[in-house]
Design brief:
Layout (H helix, E strand, L loop, with lengths): L5 H12 L9 H10 L2 E4 L4 E4 L12 E8 L3 H11 L4 E6 L3 E2 L7 E10 L5 H8 L8
Antiparallel strand pairs: 1-2, 3-6, 4-6, 5-6
Helix pairs in contact: 1-2
């Protein structure tokens, strides 16, 4: 039996109110079904909220990666991610190293943004994908 979280118990109620047979779905399938019906979980309000049906925004061409590792391994981990995406993707942004709060204070995070673009320079990629971008390097 699935653990009865606030999200799950609220999903069961929302499903019942919308004639969705909740017992036909496992937890993740139920969440997906509610999303398909326009219901989305608001973790701050701790409730399912319905959004009007509207056209979706165009997806971003960016690949955004958070690298999280121990302080002594963060630089190597960032380079490993960069290397894994080096064939066909270019790094357009790399954050500074952010230390984690206690009790994870011996770990750090770095945020990377990649864009597809084999054969293009970083400046060309930024300009092509965001004509208002100003590079601050």
């Amino acid at each position: 039996m699935a653990r009865m979280t606030v999200k799950f118990s609220s999903a069961l109620i929302t499903a019942e109110q919308n004639q969705v047979r909740a017992h036909d779905y496992d937890r993740e399938q139920l969440y997906k079904r509610l999303n398909e019906l326009g219901w989305w979980w608001d973790s701050k309000k701790k409730e399912w909220v319905q959004f009007a049906d509207e056209p979706a925004d165009e997806p971003t061409p960016l690949i955004m990666v958070r690298v999280w590792a121990s302080d002594e391994n963060i630089a190597r981990a960032v380079e490993a991610v960069r290397g894994a995406l080096a064939n066909g993707y270019v790094v357009i942004q790399e954050s500074k190293v952010y230390p984690c709060r206690p009790p994870k204070q011996r770990e750090s995070r770095v945020y990377l943004q990649f864009i597809p673009g084999a054969g293009m320079t970083r400046a060309e990629l930024i300009q092509e994908n965001d004509p208002f971008a100003i590079e601050l390097d």
